[in-house]
Amino acid sequence: MKRWVGPLRAAAAASGPCSESGGFRTRFDFGSRDAASWFPGHMAKGLRQMRASLRRADCLVEVHDARIPLSGRNPVLQEVLGIRPHLLVLNKMDLADPRQQSRVLEQLRQQGCSHVVFTDCQRDSNVKKIVPLVAKLVSSSPRYHRAESTEYSIMVIGVPNVGKSSLINSLRRLHLKKGKATAVGGEPGITRAVLTRIQVCETPLVYLVDTPGVLPPKLADVETGMKLALCGAIHDHLVGEDIMADYLLYILNQQQQFGYMERYGLPEASDNIRHVLKYVAVTLGKTQKVKVLTGTGNVNMMMLNYSAAAYEFLRAFRAGRLGRLTLD
Fold it and tell me: Distance between CA atoms of 124 and 63, rounded to whole angstroms?
């Protein structure tokens, strides 16, 4: 608990007014934190391999998290897209606010992204739209070195942990009635290198190449990094679960998503992260034994485990248990 007390108290002090005093924060104070930078060696290697494999790709399918449809799309990948057909798949639509879809589509169109599909690879929702759309895009575009080939080769790209591997497995279930072809996981960095081609459809004959998630070498700002971290694209410990939990509370209150009150038994909404995590810890029984030195000897006391509570608060958001939320 010790490493949480200072940051959480500081966050609570900077939280601004709680609901009891008439309002929520209108901005989040990131303090003196600089924009996060995280570009491990395997990402640089993966980007080189992607560029080398690009000439063999007929179409690029960019997979991104539907909860952050505008933030965190890698500008390096935008350069890689070149002039090939491009389809943007916004995955995990079951976790995003459906009321925001039309606004998001309009903003993406303004950015020049006109081919967008929302998907939920856990239930294969809308995934069936992808192969026909890819076939249409490829047939209406020049294929350069692959003009004589009857098969389609598609490269799947995106930042870490947005569901690229899950999309490939979903396509195989739908079109080939096959099981998993590539590993998936809830942590960033599962796919470490560009893999061999994976067949996902027989008619038309379609092969996909999975690629490792690649973050920008330098994130645009701290808030973009925070959104990526909340959605699991950056390891929690690199940002800090304490400030992530506080930022999540800020977003929930801003969007009037108060499901956390009922889930954790709060009498009313609050902008104080330590106050909220106290209820999370009590509700979930997150305690820890702490040794206290007294004048008569050592005494073991049970205290609330705020670090475990923050972790569970983040997990609940990622599983959709705090409501469907679009962070952009």
Answer: 15
